[in-house]
Design brief:
4 helices, 218 residues, 3-stranded antiparallel sheet, elongated, alpha+beta
Length: 218
Amino acid sequence: HSLDIQEYRIQPLDILSVSFETLSDENDAFDFLSKLAIQQGRAGGTGGGTSGIVVNTEGFIEFAVLGAIKVQGLTVFEAQDTIKAVASKFIPDVIVRIRMLNFRFTILGEVNGEKTVISPTTRLTMMEAIGQSGGLGELADRSRVKVIRQNGNEVEIFYVNLLQEDYVESPYYYVQQNDVIIVPPLKQRTFRSYFTSNLGIITTTVSFVFLIYTIGRL
């Protein structure tokens, strides 16, 4: 199968870790990079002591020394090249590295651990995402997994069949930022969940009916 690989594109309110490196040992270059590092640490955070820069609602990240740089719609590597082009005006041999800090998705339904997961990678398949929640439950319906996906100001809802081999060629093979994945139960779940308790009620009722019938014949 040929994979339809879609690199994640940065969205407003994403939190990015942006680091700068250089081989230059000049004091001016060191002071310049120090200012960028200090500003990034104050720009925002994801909790747990990890800081980054928040992409504003217009799709820009802002540095006092570099200005506003638009990164919305770019892949991580394209954003690195864009920021490097601006930073190179100040330091010719600068290297820029970007990492997403808040790529997350939510798993609900018939899985072994409902949760919201923050992933260190943005290229994650639907099966890998489900695996991070502990895997599918025994009564999970793998043929109709519901996915709720934000696309700008719109919400897209679609269903995927994990049992079909050609699903790997689907544009929905990879998880996107803020996806909500809902795994429904099989129809047998209700029967299996309540069969034992209902069996006791049915047995008691039948026994009572036979008792009344027997007494009535005496």
